Amino acid sequence: MATHNSRVLGLYYPNILTLHEYLNRRLASTNLLLPSDPDAFKALLETTFVCLRDQDVLLLNSKTESPRFDQGITQTELVSRAIQEHFACARGKPHNVITQGYQYANDTIVVTGMGALGSDIVSVCPNTHVDTLKSPLWSMVTRRAGGTVVYDLLMHSSVFVALPHDCFYQLTGTPLYSLKPLAKSSTTFASVEVLGPAHVPTLKRSASESFGLEPSKRLMLASIRRARSALTLEEPTTVHEPRQPVGRRRVLKQPQIHKANQITFVRSRLFYARPSFSTRGNISLGFRNMHILNRATSSSHLLKYVFPRQHGLHNVFTSTVDRRETTQPFQDYTLREKEIEIRGELRIPERLRNMQSLVAKLLGSHRSCSYATMVSHYCPVTSTGVTSTVDEIMDPDISVSALFTTQVDGNSSAITSSPLVSLVPKQLAGRKIDVTSFHSSHIHVSAFLRAAVAAVVPREVWGSHHNRLLIMRALDGFVRLHRFETLSLHTVLQGFRLTDLSWLGPTHTHMKLCRSETMKRLEILSELLYWIFDSFAIPLLRSTFYVTEANGKRNQVLYFRQDVWQAICDRELLRLKSTMFAEVEKTKALRILARRQLGYTLIRLLPKETGVRPIMNLKRRGFGLEINKKTGEIVRQKFLGASINSLLTQVLHVLNYEKQRDPAALGSSLFSVSELYPRLKQFKQTLVNKGWQGRRLYLVKADVQSCFDTIDQTKIIDLLDNLLSEDEYMLQKYVTVQPKDSSRIGTKYTMKADPADDISAFSTMAANMAQKSRNTVYVDQVSHKYKERLDVLAMVEEHIQNNLVKIGRKYYRQRTGIPQGSVLSTILCNFFYGDLEKKHLGFINPETSVLFRLIDDFLFITLDRDDAQRFVEVMHRGFPEYGCLINVEKTLVNFESTVAGKKVQRLVGTQCFPYCGITIHTSTLDLKKDDERQSNIHQADTVTVEMNCRPGDTFVNKIFASLRIQCQPMLFDTKLNSLRTVMTNTHQVFATCAMKLHAYLSTLHKVTDIRIKKVKEAIEQLLGVFYNLMSGKEKTVRGYQFAVSEKQVKWLGVQAFHAVLLPKQSRYRELLRWLKEMRDTVEQGNALAQKKMMLAAIADARTESLAY
């Protein structure tokens, strides 16, 4: 009997049976198979799986003896009847795989009947699943089982067909991507509970317990809620907020749809902000003029922004976000005057009467606060960059000095900073400097933010030193977060003493609040804290600092003062405007944008050690422009349009088809470093067959200078014109569902291009894709789009030759190169340089040489020194007709080479030749990870710590993810590498995991601790998972071999963890003792073979990788 091994299906369906098992349970008789049945029919019964949700499991207990259908009904009529029934039962369009591609006929569609039954339902897109169900094999199933059983199967279950490598494709049922995974048995409905009279809840209690139900009834209700939640297929209902009548004080209660642990502050608004300028043209530091603190005319007006929920306004707790207007998880509340005007006069709620005077005091403190002076004190600039230390770090207890108080006129709090007197440009002129040295440290930025909050927000708002200290710590942690880390409102709320906040209501010492009072006070406090972070801290940091990541700094976030960053960028932007871009008149640019789909691009500069790198953001969704048909004016569209990259996706899939059709057009291109593995292995085997042993290899690495920016636009368009082979292409949409880790599922919506007349069964396409995947479910969306060849060329030409870039308030056209950051950039670059190789590098002998190129990084390996020298000379001359010039400073060889009287940089002191993150041994072609590139990166900057309610499980998932990303077959194939090299790579992988483990636990330690037992379990599982992953590749990767035993893997892993954690033994004493015991257990009885080789491998790892 066949069994399913899918990690995915079990997460969605509690009942999974083979078709054979399902039919046996449904039928009174079990004569399904006969000795004369074909093998294909037997395979169908055993490789087809019927999946049932809880509401459909009753079908299994209903024995079918008398069919509801005539014996003479055909298979085509049966399938057609099922499709019609799905349409009849659905409200609107049915949601089933077999109904996709069908719709009700209308005036624009010619009605063609479905089979003999006839219907007004017509096919608008070929559904190959329906063709499969009408096939002779499924007709045979209907004859044996009866029409009733098969009809119920089509109506009430989901059918999946097994593919290689534990993959499946869906044949019938509700599309898997629209279902929610089943709730785990351990899931509880967490809510806020009361720790005591003076604290915000920190323990967990089920939601039903709040209503005083008995335990048995609470458990029953929780089970019902979980079941209903798992079975629902509809989107959450939008909450329509009632309009508050004018003059009414009472606000209708709104249901909460976002809990505190679901609300995270939108840190993405911090990044890449443009500076604000004063009327004199100088950069202003502090809040922008449009901020509510600069516009508020009264404390009652400001109260509406701080406590919108209490006034019945749109808020993060009870309101939904219109995804057509923003891509952020929560709405930006900078401007809400229209909403306030629509709602009419709103009286101040009774609960907020005591807060009104504090808000008025806050408003007055803001108007007298000099943010620019405060920035100059905490984040000063010297002749060598931003200072790394300050004499005093802001303490939340000290009062703000008069140094930071000044009188300003009007409602403006933005004080114009003094210009930098060209300090930064003078340093940039004439020499390369480390631009990242001009950033302000997290210590200084945190001190500035805490000083601003202390200066503006009255002490009475916090109620006590304890609460004030909590908010200051939260602000400090917020500034220190890495690029993709988040902070939730739930985390900030922990530990707050509600009874210390006198403005929330009358309080007495040791007073115990009832639950309803606690929840109401917590609701109001949550609004205040959300406003402090979302509408005070984020706008202040955004307008004062340019926040960005940096090249080579991984997840570290850098804060540059806006005036410093502007000085850094001026020279680079001036160079770009004069070399890459041509200015376009604004009226003309707007006309172009209104007539086409593709919008404009925003450019930002990414700091790096030797300057800045221009990056174009083509993933950004913006409000498009359109021409008003009545007035002819250019107006902004109401909703967000598609990004440029999403509009180019169809073109990308067309080019991917051409890539697969004619791989030779790409030359030596690699789309990832992993693609080097099979070609290098084949080259090494060719050399071995020719008696290569002992002969020297010559390696050359060359890098194209400004690759994307120098590509000739006309040449790449002409190249594509000759490359496209079809007059029309068909794009077929489908979805892949596969596990991300042990607890998360990844869903990817994609498409595949084929010739327009090539409509093959989805089962065939899924079987081909399954050869390169594991544990994946493929679901056809039955949506075919067609793209003509001329349309593809026109869109690429528009994208390349008319790429509009907005810098400041002006528009520019990119006149050289192709847009960097486009989804087409990589594949266009590979086709372009593939054509260059064909015309200029034809002298390469494939019998003795091999060429690799990862976008613009060339690697040439040969047995012939003359060929190597010739390659260096040809590359250094450049290829003017392609706009291709080599960066001579980055060229690297492993032999003595001179070009035009200048020596080429040579590899000295090692035989490990670096290339794109790996090293290649110049004598054996063994591969290792290039850890030297990571030597200047702190491991804490490579991890993303998630502060959630299950830190232990998240920690395990993060460590496993760091392992999987390093498990590249090319590093552990003992047919390509020596056994000693593979052992070295194994030790390095575990050493990296150990360093990440320490970095993660050290960061998490500031908030919570993970039990040592959980860490031990994670390490033990890690050792087993690595061995299973690498040995399992022998079944999926052709010619791969992993000759390291399980005990050897365990010993190498334990040694790596012990070596990394030993310098921190005061913290990991118990863990180190456990690792030593495990190592001794593995070594018992001389069961460990080749220990000397493993010790040598560890010595190699410590010599060539990061210091432990």
Structure description:
This protein is α+β, with helices and mostly antiparallel strands. Among the domains are: 9-178, no CATH class; 267-380 and 437-500 and 523-560, Topoisomerase I, Chain A, domain 4 (Orthogonal Bundle); 665-712 and 816-925, Alpha-Beta Plaits (2-Layer Sandwich), CATH 3.30.70.2630; 926-1105, Telomerase reverse transcriptase (TERT), thumb domain (Tetracycline Repressor, domain 2, Orthogonal Bundle), CATH 1.10.357.90. Helix content is 39%, strand content 15%. The protein contains 36 helices and 35 strands. The strands form eleven sheets. Strands 1-2-5-6-25-23-24 form a seven-stranded mixed sheet. Strands 16-27-26-17-18 form a five-stranded mixed sheet. The chain is globular.
List the helices and strands and how they pair.
Elements: H1 9-12, E1 15-18, H2 19-26, H3 39-47, E2 48-52, H4 75-89, E3 102-104, E4 121-123, H5 128-133, H6 136-145, H7 147-156, E5 158-163, E6 167-172, E7 190-192, E8 204-206, H8 215-231, E9 276-277, E10 283-285, H9 292-295, H10 299-306, H11 337-343, H12 353-367, H13 371-378, E11 381-382, E12 385-386, E13 415-416, H14 423-428, H15 442-456, H16 465-480, H17 489-493, H18 515-544, E14 545-548, E15 558-561, H19 562-579, E16 581-584, H20 586-595, E17 601-608, E18 611-617, E19 623-627, E20 634-640, H21 644-647, H22 649-661, E21 669-670, H23 676-689, E22 698-703, H24 707-710, H25 713-723, E23 728-739, E24 745-755, H26 762-770, E25 777-788, H27 789-801, E26 804-807, E27 810-814, H28 825-840, E28 849-854, E29 857-862, H29 865-877, E30 892-893, E31 898-899, E32 902-903, E33 912-915, E34 918-921, E35 927-929, H30 951-964, H31 969-972, H32 979-1004, H33 1012-1036, H34 1046-1061, H35 1069-1083, H36 1091-1104
Parallel strand pairs: 6-25, 17-26, 21-28
Antiparallel strand pairs: 1-2, 2-5, 3-4, 5-6, 7-8, 9-10, 10-13, 11-12, 14-15, 16-27, 17-18, 19-20, 22-29, 22-30, 23-24, 23-25, 26-27, 28-29, 31-32, 33-34, 34-35
GO molecular function: metal ion binding; telomerase activity; telomerase RNA binding; telomeric DNA binding
EC number: 2.7.7.49
Family: Belongs to the reverse transcriptase family. Telomerase subfamily.
